[in-house]
Each structure stands twice: as C-alpha cells, then as structure tokens.
Amino acid sequence: MRDKLEQLAGELKGTLYTDDTMRTLYATDASAYREMPLAVAIPADEADLKTLIRFARENKTSLIPRTAGTSLAGQVVGNGIITDVSRTFTKILELNKEEGWVRVQPGVIRDELNMFLKPHGLYFGPETSTANRAMIGGMVGNNSCGSNSVVYGSTREHLLEVKALLSDGQEVTFGSMDAETFHQKCEGPDTLETRIYKQIRTTLSNHNNAAEIRKEFPKKSIPRRNTGYAVDMLLETSPFTAGTEDFNFCKLIAGSEGTLAFLTEIKIHVDPIPPKEVGLLCIHFNNIDESLRANVLVMDFKPSASELIDHYILECTKDNIEQSKNRFFVQGDPGAILVVEFCRNTREEITAICAQVEAKLREAGLGYHFPLLFGDDSKKIWALRKAGLGLLSNLPGDEKAVPVIEDTAVAVEDLPHFIRDFNDILKQYGLYAVHYAHAGSGEIHLRPIINLKTVEGNHLFRKIAEEIATLVKKYHGSLSGEHGDGRLRGEFIKQMVGDKNYELLREIKYTWDPENIFNPNKIVDTPSMNSMLRYEPGQAAPTINTIFHFPEQTILQHAEQCNGSGDCRKTQLSGGTMCPSYMATRNEKDTTRARANILREFLTHSNKENRFDHKEIYEVLDLCLACKGCKSECPSNVDMAKLKMEFLQHYYDANGVPMRANMIGNYSRLNGLAAIAPSIYNSLVKNPLTGSLIRKFSGFAPKRSLPTLHTTTLRNWYTRIWPSEKKGKTGSRKVYLFCDEFTNYNDTTIGIKAVKLLHKLGYQVEMIEHPESARAYMSKGLLRKAREIAEDNVRIFQTIINENTPLLGVEPSAILSFRDEYPDLVRDGLRKGAQELSKHVYMVDEFLAIEADKGNITAAQFTTRTQHIKLHGHCQQKALSSALHSKKILSIPSNYSVEVIPSGCCGMAGSFGYEKEHYDLSMQIGEMVLFPAVRNAASGTIIAAPGTSCRHQVKDGTGVIAKHPIEILFESLA
Fold this sequence. Notes:
Blueprint: H1 2-11, E1 15-17, H2 20-25, E2 39-42, H3 46-58, E3 63-66, E4 81-84, E5 92-96, E6 101-104, H4 110-117, E7 122-123, H5 136-142, H6 149-152, E8 159-165, E9 171-177, H7 179-186, H8 192-205, H9 207-216, H10 231-235, E10 247-248, H11 250-253, E11 262-269, E12 271-272, E13 277-285, H12 288-298, E14 305-310, H13 311-318, E15 336-344, H14 347-363, E16 372-374, H15 375-386, H16 388-391, E17 400-401, H17 415-428, E18 433-437, E19 445-450, H18 455-474, H19 486-489, H20 493-497, H21 499-512, H22 555-560, H23 580-585, H24 592-605, H25 615-621, H26 629-633, H27 640-655, H28 659-665, H29 667-674, H30 678-686, H31 688-698, H32 714-725, E20 733-738, H33 741-745, H34 748-760, E21 763-766, H35 775-779, H36 783-797, E22 807-809, H37 812-815, H38 822-825, H39 828-838, E23 841-843, H40 844-853, E24 867-871, H41 875-880, H42 883-890, E25 896-900, H43 919-928, H44 930-935, E26 942-944, H45 948-958, H46 965-971
Parallel strand pairs: 2-4, 3-4, 20-21, 20-22, 22-23, 24-25, 24-26
Antiparallel strand pairs: 1-2, 5-6, 6-11, 7-12, 8-9, 8-11, 9-10, 13-15, 13-16, 14-15, 14-18, 17-19, 18-19
Helix pairs in contact: 7-8, 8-21, 17-18, 24-25, 34-46, 36-39, 40-42
C-alpha cells in the first residue's frame, strides 16, 4: 500500500501525508474516539477529489471527509484517508440577495460567512457553539443547529441544493424538484444517480414502509432529530405525501455525515439580519427541575433562545481566566440559570416582555433573580454559555464529563419528566451529570462524569448509553439532536427506529455507496460504541517527573485537558490571540489541539525512559509562539507555553542544548558584557557587514534588525543619576519597581520615564538588587536555570511585597512571570510564598489603572491637548491581565482617544521572530491585522505597545516607532 500511496501523492495537486505524525494528529476529533488513518489528504480541487475517490474504490479503502474536526461523536475518525477540505475549499461563490441564498464551498466558516453577509443585510441562522471555526460542510454533515434553533431551525431547513461527487466519481446536483421531475429522474439512463432516485421511490412508495417509518421515528414535534438518515422527512414530501413540499434529497444529505456523497458546493437559504436589539433574561433557579418547568412556560412568550447553564458549569467558570470575567451577573450560587433571549426592534419591547415572563414565573413560584442584560453584556453571557463544552474538560484528574448521552432530544413539554428519569438512572450507578444547552428546543447536553481509562469506566460508558437509549425511545425522542450519530450512537439506531427501518437505512447507504468508500461505519454497521477510544481501559499511567508543578494533575493529564473542541482553529477575523501560528498557516499541525494530541500520544505510548525524547513532538511544538493565548482563551485552559517549556528542557536533556538556545537564554548575561561598551556593541550590530555576520553566527534572520543597548542601564541611572534629579516631595505610598533585563539594557528610557511618572504622581519608587526575570531562560526551555532565578526573586520579594507595597514592572513578559510561571516553577518550600507574592505584582499600566479607578490619579494631572492613540496589547498581558488597563491609563488625559487594535500576537514573541526559520511566519502573523492597522493610522496617531518585542516587530514590519503606554502618559503630564 505504501507504494500505491506514493503514486497517489504524485497524482494529486494537493498534498498527501502518510507520515506517522500527521496521521496521529488526525486520529482524533472532538470526541472520545481515536483511530489511526491510512493517510491524510489536503485536496487542491475537485479533480483531486475524483482521484481520491477512484483510489479508494480501486484499493478497497475509504475517504473520511473533514472540515474543522469538531465532531463530538467520532464522525471524522476512521482508518481510511482523512480528506481535509478546510484549507482549500473555502470560497464564497455566489450571493443572490433577491432570492435570499448563498452558494459556498464546504470549508467556509459559519461566522465568517455571516461577516460577508452582514453588509447585505443577510444572516445564516444556525449557530453552533463552535461557530467561529465550524464550517458549512461539517454543519451540513451533522445537520447542526444551535441555541437559536427555536427560530432558525437546523441546517437542514436552510439547505437548498448541493453539488457532489458520488462514489463512482460522477458529478451530480441535488435540489428541489416537483413530482414530475422526480419521476423523470427515476427513469433516466442506468447511472448511479438514477439508481439512487429509483431506490428511494421504491422504498417510500411502499405503504408498509411509510407506516413503519411514521410509527418508529421520533415525534414530529421534536425539532431536533438526527436519528439515522432523515427518511421520515423525505416521506413528508411530494410525491409520497399529497399537499406537501417538493422532493429534495438535501433533506437526506443533511445529517448524513459524509457517508453518501462528497459535497463540493452548498447552496443555503439566508434570512434578514435579526432585529438589532437583543436582551437576555438570565433567570436564577434553585435547581434543574425548577428551571425546566419554567422553560415550558417561557416558550409561550416566543423567545429566540432558551439555554440552560447548570451549577457545575458555573463552578468551572470561577477558575477560568476568560470566563470568570463573564460571571458578573450571577447572584449567589444558583442551581441553574436559564438564559432566555428576546430579539426586538427596541429595548422597551424586550423589557415589557421580560416583565411579563418574570410575573408569570413568580406566580408559579419559579425563579428568584431575573437580571435583564443588553449590549456587550449579552455577548459575555453567550460566551459563558458557549464555553460550557471546553470548561467541562477542566476537571483535574482522569474523571471527565464524557460525551455519551449528551445529545438526546425530546418534546419540550416532556423535558422535565425526561430529565428526572434520566437523573434517576444515573443515581443507580452512583453518577451525576452536567446539564447545559438547549432547553428551548427540548435538548439538554447531559454529560456524566466517568473515568474512561479504567475497565469499569469503559463498561459504564456503554451501560449508560444503553439505559438512556431505552429511556429516549420511551419518550419517542431522538438520541441525537444536533451532534450526529457517528461512532457513538450509530450502534443504537436500530433500537431507535426498529429493525425494518434500520434495514431501509442500510439499503440507502449501499445504494449510494456500493463499495462503502464514504466514511464507513457511521450511521449503519457501526462498531461497538466503547471500542477504539482515546483511552485504553486499564492502561497504566506513566510516572513523569517534571520541573513545573501541575496543580492537582500530572503533565499528561494537563495535555489531556484538550478535548479537541478546536477553539484554537478560529481565524484572526474572530479576534483573540489563540493560535497565531494556525491563523497564519491554516495547518492542523499548527493548532494548540495538535500540540496537545502529540504530547498525549508520546507521553502515553513512548517506550523511552525519557518520554519527551521524540523529534516528532519537537516538530509539532516548534511553531508554538508561547503567546499564552491558550491559557486564557482555550476553554480547557491548556497552557501550551508551559507544556512546551517543560518539553524542551527534557528534550535538551537527551539531545543537548543548541548554541542559539543557550545564547538567548543567557540574554541578560550577554547584554551585561556588551553594556561595558554599548557604543561599540551598537556599531557592530548596526554595521551591515558585522551585523550580517552576527545574524549568521547566531541563527537569526538576515532581514531582522538586532536590538541595541542604551548608553547606560536603568540600574546605573537609578543609583547614580536619579537621586540628584529627583524633585519635589517623596510620595507617601511605596512601590517597588522590578528592573527586568529588557528595560535595564535596551529600553532604559522607558524605565526612566516609569520612575519619573510614578514619582510625579505621588509614589515613592524603590528599586533594590535582584536577579533578572528568567524570561529568556524559560522561553528556551532552560527551566532548571530559570528555577534558580525564580527562587532567588521569591526569597527577595516575598517579605517586602504586600497589598500596600506592590511590585511593579514595565515589560509584561518579565513582570507577569511572578503571576504566571513562578508559583509552579519554584519548589515546594517556596510555593506558598510565590503564590502570595503573585497577588501583589502588577504591570505599571495595571497599577495606574487601579489607582485611577480609586480616584488617586485624575485628568487634571495631564495635558488637555487632543491626541489619538492606537494600542496593541501584549499577548501575555491579554492572557494574564488585560490590555484594557493600558487603554484606561491612556484615556486619562481628557482629550486622548484610544483605539485598541483587534490584533492577536504581533508575531515576534520574544526570540521567535528573530530566528531565521521562523522569520517569514513571524512577519506573516504581523501582516494579518497589526501591520495594516499601523500603516492605515491617520497622520499624527501614536502607536502604543507595552511589549518590547511588539515594538521591535512594529518597527521592522512598518518602519513606525511604537511607544510604551508609560512613555505616552509621562509625556502627557501637565
């Protein structure tokens, strides 16, 4: 087969990967399943798809269509060729505003489609929680919907037409047709397309079949039903049922999970943009049962969504950096919150409706707190709700909230009774479930807490699925509401629809796909649902000694927190920082998910004593910029920067420390030597000849400018010059300034202005002897050396820093080390001291913003001239603090206006952008948002950036000199 695959690779315009690394990265999706594929194909065009179809047919293998890979039921896991169209089939092909439709390729992202439609006043309704990376092809495959399905329904209701390739390579178009056209199709030439039409006519024209389908399929009143192929919906079309809508095979294709045909174009209906005003009534309840009984009453008021968040998810949000900020509306510790959305033209209309809802519920004795939120606040609530899936992965240890019966749907009026019965079943097994999601459409995502690494957990996984399948059948519900059948539920479809109907589904599959080449073993002929899981039951947990402390878990368990939800696949158009390398390359290998997957694989299965000693891990982690975006933006809080640092130390233990890594790690020491004669050093790095030699020797990019030194160091200035320059009274409140290695040697003037600004604003600034921050050592994985420095700093500062006397810093990456890495880097004896110290450490920007909020700093202390500023926040600042602190202090002068550039990482990321093999990617990242925003700034605009590497990147990428916010504020003093 290897020779055949090599030949296939030569026939494709796109790329075929057969190496173990790429196959490993595509062996999982967002589900509990794992199966090694034969290969991974990135087809360039339809011709490549035809070639792949022919190859699969001739070689008895299969194609597994894949877009974002966020499926929860194992839909895109298989042993054939994973065919990823997310990078190449990404065009919006045609828009017809008058008729209200758009034609796209399957790799178009849902949210980005709506960005395109918005200027035209149009909107694609179905909204998954993964909408900022979910693609239309995957949404069709799973028949996705989302929180607003009570208004917009599922993808099936919007699917008008598809172009597809059948299993024999024939190009076909499926769309709406009247009865006459349908019968003509059935009488066409003997092609696979004709046989498909004939088979469905024969099947659905049979009265016994029709009666059996209507008897066994889920209730028609359940809007979310994804049980098998949607023959129940095809049956309710012409010519099979009089007086109904025209026949359209799209009803069957939606939810077919890529098992029938390979879609190349998708035509979908779009609606007018919803009313501009959105209000969320966030009703607090004592328990789940109350909330579900209230939900039945709420639906009488025609909300656009009614979403449940239970107390388990609310607890998870307390410890999530990003989502803890979105808990502002929560009062006490509710057992459940029902988020009810109303869209109207005015806030007054919404307020009036919500008053009626509250009165109705209070009369029924349901609910105790009814906050109504609008505007940006409502966006925060939806962010909190959508984060539910990822937050559930945050549970420390091996017990996780597993997707096993998380997609059941019943009639809304049956939901309270169904959930009570559901929880009674779980109690029999000593289990409890997390409850969240779509109460308004009769579907609650329910996830029991199970350890799939144990034999008992594996058996329980199956037993719970069997019990709940029986319960769902009792209520004539659907085992899948929106997540699909896949590997997880396919086994139970026969139970859901009956033996006879199941055979009808098999006939459909094998009429469309006689050779079983399209995503086999999904929907029909599915293997046991507790086989081929990520975790092998009874697998031994390896003992892995680490330098970093991983609270309440091991390093392997931290990597396993990644559940594959793919939040790291969002693009720059969706905002945020995570993940800059993926945003630039659009390569799955460069996602945080891929990095977690490769670590999990080797840390679990490696036979080496040093499980980190694998080149494959190094290659996948190489493009991680250690921006810390994942630490805050990943719902699972996977800290890939921390994992990469730990990996590098152990990898170097086995393979030696590269010269460049050593040189960068020793940045402070080398600068200390160069600072003896800074003018000579600066001349050498600026001279084209010697500068070129230095770059070549160091492994730095030829086009990258090198940092220069100031004529003096900040420490020298503070001890020798500042005492004589200091004027006016010494402030009453003492603050300590951390003299980091970057501000000390390179950005001395910023440090000087920070001292002078603080002094002028009434603070007594102290700077004592202490080591560097160790940021450079940590960035290159030299953790043992970094730990020595961190421990020295903790010993020095833990006794003098407190709530009243904080430690401040200029460079974000350096000062925030105290808050981020230090508590987990120091040894046990210093950990409590480091944790306490971390509470009183701030960027200068952050400290001044807090002081301004207290009224200790006012606009009266600054200029009244007009100035516009564009601000680029530092990655670690955004992850561990907030760029809004910088914005706030720059807004103190009364006529200063500040615009935050919606950029993620600048692309420099410390030494990353200097390194010759990373330079092009570094600049590509800068070009996504930051560089254009700087170039397009109006004349006279100041560019602000707190990070030293960010300012360097802006200069190299645009020629503009950016300033630290502290510089700008100092220069604006009255």
